[in-house]
Amino acid sequence: MDIQENIINKVASSGLITLNLEEYFHKGERLVYDIKDNLFHGLILREKDFRDFIKTHDWEQYTGKNIALICSADAIVPTWAYMLLANRMMPFVNELVFGDLETLETVLYTKALAKIDINSFANERVVVKGCADIPVPVSAYVAITALLTPVVKSIMYGEPCSTVPIYKRKD
To answer: What is the pLDDT of residue 8?
Structure first.
């Protein structure tokens, strides 16, 4: 007996649009610049020494990099010191934030997601891909949900074959 089965790919014919946040990952190198290395005995920032450092440091080494600016020492660092660092780094870096690597990743994703033409998702059923090979911060999932909610028909999380419903517009 020859029984021919028709296999139908229900996922492909579902009309779901998969949005993979990994595609918005900035590939540039991430570095932490810790101002503790500029502190005298790890305690205080001496203005003259710091200004000399600012003048002589090779800032070009940060070209194209993403920098998280922190102070890991328990010291009071004047705001102007961070401002001087930012001023010297900005002509070279891709991104500079005050905060840790998680803050940096959030800023990178926020900027990348802001460039999406959200209207291209109008009235669509969107699955935000869940399993990632690259770690995607929770902040990126929150940001894309906030951007999509006003325009889409529905938002789901996961894979097209197994999703968790997040939002469904009431028609």
So the answer is: 39
Strand partners, 70: 34
Chain segment 145-154, per-residue pLDDT in tens: 999 999 999 9
- Classify residue 30 by burial, with Cβ atoms within 10 Å: 0-12, 13-18, 19+: middle
The radius of gyration of the chain's CA atoms, rounded to the nearest angstrom, is 23
pLDDT of residue 123: 96
pTM score, two decimals? 0.84
Beta strands per DSSP E along 38-153: 66-70, 95-98, 125-129
Under DSSP, is residue 117 helix (H, G, I), strand (E, B) or coil?
A: coil
Domain boundaries, the chain: 16-26+106-168, 30-93
